[in-house]
Specification:
The protein contains three helices and eight strands. By secondary structure, the protein is of the alpha+beta class.
């Protein structure tokens, strides 16, 4: 059955980040919650996605030990050095590892909005993941619903 939603609304915002290290995580949950409030959407969806190929958006627990574990695990999977081990870096880049890390951690998340709030499971938080920092990058937040 096709439903018609005459009161469909949208909000589009961009968040900007400049992480000073090559690798780091920023909890953006509060910022996204504020945007949901600003949208006045009560029922809908919230898309949050990294607009750069060496950054990520993901959902997980906001526990410092776990975030440190992510850093160690990602670095063991795709170490930054030696940069010569990656074919991508033969183009003059030094960030092939960041592309691999982004692939593992993901590009975006979609969270349901129920009764005007992000509908999370226990302990879920939204993070921006940076894998080739020291330059300005953006994240898109697109909220749709009624």
């Amino acid at each position: 059955m096709l439903l018609h939603y005459p009161s469909m609304k949208t909000l589009t915002e961009y968040l900007w980040f400049e992480v000073p290290q090559r690798l780091g995580f920023v909890n953006i949950t509060h910022t996204v919650e504020e945007l949901v409030r600003k949208s006045a959407i009560k029922e809908g969806l919230c898309l949050v996605n990294a607009m750069h190929i060496t950054a990520s958006v993901f959902i997980n627990d906001a526990e410092n030990g776990l975030l440190a574990d992510f850093e160690e695990w990602l670095e063991s999977f795709a170490p930054h050095e030696p940069v010569s081990k990656y074919r991508h870096n033969r183009t003059g880049e030094d960030n092939a590892d960041a592309h691999l890390k982004r692939t593992i951690m993901g590009r975006e998340v979609v969270v349901a909005i129920t009764k005007g709030k992000l509908d999370f499971g226990p302990w879920e938080q939204i993070f921006y993941g940076e894998f080739d920092g020291r330059r300005r990058k953006r994240v898109l937040v697109k909220i749709i619903g009624e």
